[in-house]
Design brief:
328 residues; TIM Barrel; 10-stranded parallel sheet
Length: 328
């Protein structure tokens, strides 16, 4: 078994065996650059040299009834994080306009909470219409919606439904006890059945093992998820995972490379926690690890990086930001 053998299999559209995957997982740190180089080549073969840029707004913050151990927005968290109801559609549109000026082509409206009331749903529809009017692709992360609600939002211009699975079904009870993993999987399926681009991925560094990471990737592949965000835990004071150490850069790069091998057709995007793991000076190397998209700007409750530097890193890696053509 060799890295090149696994690479050729994926490039030719063949599935990796359990033995192939175990080989990749057990690669020593000194061979991770080989893995990411080949993962980057796979990404170029599927997506060319374009990098899709997305941004988000914390549209509704805090007060979430769920007990996810990593999240500052849970009512059970003691973290110092913003708390406010759903922003007016005009404020969300203004944030989207600023993101577009920095090069974003997709814009995510992110709201805390699992369940959606009628008033918030009306607000989501208005916000989606406003973002779509700017020529951006509106994405929405509202919690769990049913297919009928998603179809109404699609008619308003929604293009993407974001609902992370976070980790494997096996590990999920270790980080959340207030709802079942099957609810999240059903939400992802509802988005796909509604004909939306579903963005669903993981948060790595929670204490999960490599088997959990492989299990999640295989589930995402079997569901046919279009876009897979890769987030790394940035421990937040006041949350149950505040004391966890961030992943070592080599381990985080292996996650990205492995996911490109296991999800060759998915738009893998680097999102939260990348600066806490890699620092501000590793952008060029991280962009050469197999990802095809990047979240720019701030995250939900944590500051993001400098957008101009992100754009410079993209070009330094021999890539180019994707652009929009509509002028508003």
């Amino acid at each position: 078994m060799s890295l090149n053998t696994a690479y050729r299999k994926v490039l030719d559209g063949r599935s990796l065996s359990d033995a192939d995957i175990r080989f990749l997982v057990e690669l020593p740190d000194e061979r991770v650059p080989e893995l990411t180089r080949l993962a980057h080549t796979l990404r170029l073969a599927r997506f060319g040299d374009r990098v899709e840029l997305c941004a988000i707004v914390n549209a509704k913050s805090g007060g979430c009834t769920e007990d996810c151990a990593f999240c500052a927005q849970s009512v059970r968290s003691r973290a110092d994080s913003p708390r406010h109801g759903l922003l007016p559609a005009g404020e969300i549109e203004a944030a989207a306009r600023a993101a577009r000026a920095h090069g974003a082509t997709r814009f995510g409206i992110v709201a805390s909470g699992k369940d959606v009331g009628a008033k918030d749903f009306e607000g989501f529809v208005a916000a989606v219409e406003g973002v779509a009017g700017l020529g951006l692709a509106p994405d929405l992360s509202p919690g769990i919606l049913d297919q009928a609600q998603l179809k109404l939002l699609k008619n308003a211009g929604l293009q993407g439904y974001h609902h992370n699975l976070e980790t494997s079904a096996s590990f999920f009870p270790s980080i959340c006890t207030t709802h079942g993993y099957d609810e999240d999987v059903r939400a992802v399926r509802a988005g796909l059945e509604a004909g939306l681009r579903v963005c669903s991925g993981g948060l790595f560094g929670l204490g999960e093992g490599w088997d959990d990471r492989v299990e999640l990737a295989r589930l995402l592949a079997s569901l046919g998820v279009d876009s897979v965000p890769i987030n790394f835990l940035q421990p937040i004071p006041g949350t149950p995972l505040a004391g966890r150490e961030v992943l070592a850069p080599a381990e985080a790069l292996k996650v990205i490379g492995l996911y490109r091998f296991l999800l060759p057709d998915a738009a893998i995007r680097l999102c939260g926690g990348r600066l806490s793991v890699f620092g501000p000076d590793a952008g060029r190397d991280v962009l050469g690890s197999g990802a095809s998209g990047l979240m720019i700007g701030d995250y939900l409750t944590v500051r993001g990086g400098d957008v101009d530097r992100d754009l410079a890193d993209i070009r330094a890696a021999g890539l180019r930001p994707e652009t929009i053509t509509m002028d508003n």
